[in-house]
C-alpha cells in the first residue's frame, strides 16, 4: 500500500519534489500546500511543469491538508528568513501524527550543540506524542557533508582531518532573499550580513561539523571556530537574484571549524563566487560550475569531487533536484523510523529504488 504524502511548497525545490513523489511507486501524492494565493486551485502537475495533471489541487488551507492524515509531509518551504515560525510548523505536524522530511531549518540536521537543549526536547516530545519522525536533510547541509564523508572514512586507517567543501558559482542561483539579505551579495563590505554575524555560521553549518565529529567519536573544543573572507567586485555583475556593483561583495569564502585539543579535525569550507574568474587562489572545481569536494587527510589521503548538473539546466537547477530527492527518497525510511528527530546517523542506506524506468511495451 502506497504511503500518502503531502508536498509543502512548490518553489525552486518543491516543484522537483512533486515530480519525485510522482516517480516513486511506493508514494502517493494526496495534497499540496502553497503560500502564493495565485497558485491555489492549480493542479500539482502544472506547478511541477510535468506537462500533465496529477489530479491533486493546491491549497493554502493547512487544516484541510492535516485532515487528510497523510503518512508524511515533504516540507520544502523557504525557512531561512522565518526559522522559528518553521520550527513551530514542524512541531505541529509531528504532534498531529504526521512524519516529516524537511529541507530546513538546517540546524535540525544534527542539532546537538547547535540549538538549545530545550528546543531539541520539544521536537523530540512532539514526535513521541504524535508517534511521528522528523528528518532534516538535503544536499548541503545534507548528503554532501554527512553521508558522503562518513562513508569515505570507512576506508581510512588513520584520520587527521575531514574537510567538506562546497565550491560553486551562484550567479544562476535564484534566491533573492538568500543572496542579498542573508549572504550580502551586492552589499557594501562595510555591512555585516546576517550570515556572517558571529555565531550564525556555527548555527547554520555547525550541524555538519558536529555530526561528522559524532560519527567519528570526537569530542570537539568549544566553541566552533568561524572564518570569513569576502571579495569585492572589480566590475559590475548581473546575477539572476541580484545586481552586484563594482566594489560591493561578489564572492565569499567561509569556514566552520571543529578542533580537538586545538587541532583542526573537521572543517566545513564554502567558496561561493558569482563569476568563475573571481579569486583563482581559492579552491576551484576541476570542471563545470561547481562541486562538492571531500578531502580526508591521513592514511590513506583521499579526495572525492562530487559534481552535478541538470539534464536541461545548470548545476543550480540540479542542486534543487538533489535537495528534493534526498528528502523524497528518504520518506519510506523516515516513516519506519523511531518517533522523534532522526539524523543521517540513524537512517539505513537510502537508494533510488524504483526510479529506473521500465521499458515501454510495444503495442501489437
From TrEMBL:
It comes from Williamsia maris. Residues 145-350 form the 2,4-diaminopentanoate dehydrogenase C-terminal domain. This is 2,4-diaminopentanoate dehydrogenase C-terminal domain-containing protein. It holds the Pfam family DAP_DH_C. It comes from the Bacteria. Coiled coil: none annotated.
